[in-house]
Every structure is written in C-alpha cells, then in structure tokens.
C-alpha cells in the first residue's frame, strides 16, 4: 500500500512537466522557451493566484477519490461519481449563466435515480462496516475532475489484500467522500472553464499555474497528515509500475479534461464518462470478483440513458447529419 497523498502530489508535478514539454515543443528554441516561461508564468504571479480556488478544490477532490475507492467497489464508485454532472449543471447555471431546458433537468433526475439504485447495492453489502484506520491507500484525481477509470486498478495486489480491504470498507464514508468530491468537481470545473474561455492566455500556461497551486496544496496536505509514515518508509514507499501508471493517468487525464473544457464544456465532459461505467463494471467483474445485482444493472442502465438524453444535442452539434 502506498500513501495516497504522495500520489496526488506527484501527479501535479508530472502535470507541470508535461505542460512544459508541450510549451518547449511550441517554441522555436530554448531561448524563446525560457523567455516565454519568465514572461507568462514567473512574471505574472497574480494570474497564478487566480488558480488557487480551483486548484485547492481539485486537491481536495483528488484526495477524496482515494478515500472513496478505498471504501467502494470500483464499478459502484464509477456510477456514483456521475452525480458530479448534477453539480456541474447547477454551477454552470450559477457561474456561467447557462439555461437548461426541461428535458435536460429530467435527464438529471434520471441520473440521480440511477445513482441511488447503484448505491443501494453497496450500502446493503456491508452489514458491519469499519472505518479505515490509516490514510495510506493504493488507489486513484478527476480528478477526479476526472481520470478515475484506472484508479481502482491499484487497489488490490492479490487475494489476501482483497479480504483485508473488504473487511475495512465503509460504504457510508465512501458515499460522503464521493458527494463532497462531486460538489468540489462541479464548482472547480465551471470556475476553470470560465477562466479558460474569458482569457487569451495559453491553456498550457493555465494548467501550469493550476499545477503549481495544486502541488502546493497537495504538499501541505501530505506533510500535515502523512509526515510520520513518510519519515518511516519514504516518499515512494509501496510504489511499483502499476502505481506509476495510476499517477501518470491522473496527471495526463487532467490535461485531457482541460482540452475538453477548452473546446467543449464541463457538462459534455461529464456525460462522456458514462461509457466508462461499462468498462469499470467489466474490469471489476474479472479482476475483483465484483458481482453486480439486478438493481445495480438497472441503475447503471438508467445512468447511461440519462447521459445520452442529456448529451443528444451535443451529439447533433458535433456529428453532422446527412440530408435525406
């Protein structure tokens, strides 16, 4: 088991490095690249301060994702986390001034019904939950607004770990972590979208500014809560190849989310993840012995239907229809 807060911190560092690599590729020489960094990043501290709000919320969200995946089955987590679409829709109305038609709100209501059905399996499967006694984990960093799909892959090393993990899972704690993360994701995503679309600053510069603030918050949380285990076992204790894949997935997935937000919007990004529900369910079935009930299947199906109903206008927008 590795320490979750270290993975969140390293993901932010990797995100900054990836953005710097892209920016270097866009500049004709190292001299131009250095001047660009000094001018756009080091020379504009106020712009970096603007990113403190979303980066702080993203740091909170990423850490909560680890808590959620430590207490929920991967497939249950994936569907429940779709509640972020509801919070994103609400904040898009409040912060971005959008208006949603009645059929869109109906789709959101269906989403909540589906999530409730899925969550009922998790809440009923643990008759005597016990709270985890340590902040160490081996999981996800959306996140996740939102690279969650591979985060569960590192939860379990072998069958013995599976038995220990199930014994310490608390579906209620997992649910509370998901709900808080959804609210954080919705607000931070809409705030970030507003900054991206109301400024001519490069998206890569914005992501570096976001990464700097996020790395700061992540480091503070890491030192506050996990200083003792880090002293005892080191920053990279429990890390292996799969762990680094999870960290890279969080970092690069976050950049992919920024691209979607820049050229589409947060709601479309949220509904696009509905397909990953099927993927998570299949992976959990084969790797983690996850046994979905009929209630879970119905709930997941309703979530996917609501995702399609909400995103149908976006599909028509981006996929041209041939005239008859």
Automatic annotation (TrEMBL):
Q: Mark the transmembrane ranges.
A: 6-23, 81-98, 105-122, 172-192, 204-224, 244-264, 271-288, 294-312
**This protein's superkingdom?**
Eukaryota
Entry annotated with the keyword Transport: yes
Q: Name one GO molecular function term.
A: pyrimidine nucleotide-sugar transmembrane transporter activity
| Assigned keywords, A-Z | Membrane, Sugar transport, Transmembrane, Transmembrane helix, Transport
* Region described as Disordered: 121-144
Its Gene Ontology cellular component terms are: Golgi membrane
User: What topology in the membrane does the UniProt record assign?
Assistant: Multi-pass membrane protein
What InterPro entries has UniProt attached to this entry?
A: EmrE-like, Nuc_sug_transpt
Main location as per UniProt:
membrane
Q: Which residue intervals are annotated with compositional bias (Low complexity) in the record?
A: 125-141
Keyword flag Membrane: yes
Q: Where does it reside?
A: Membrane
Q: What is this protein called?
A: Nucleotide-sugar transporter
Please tell me the species this chain comes from: Absidia repens
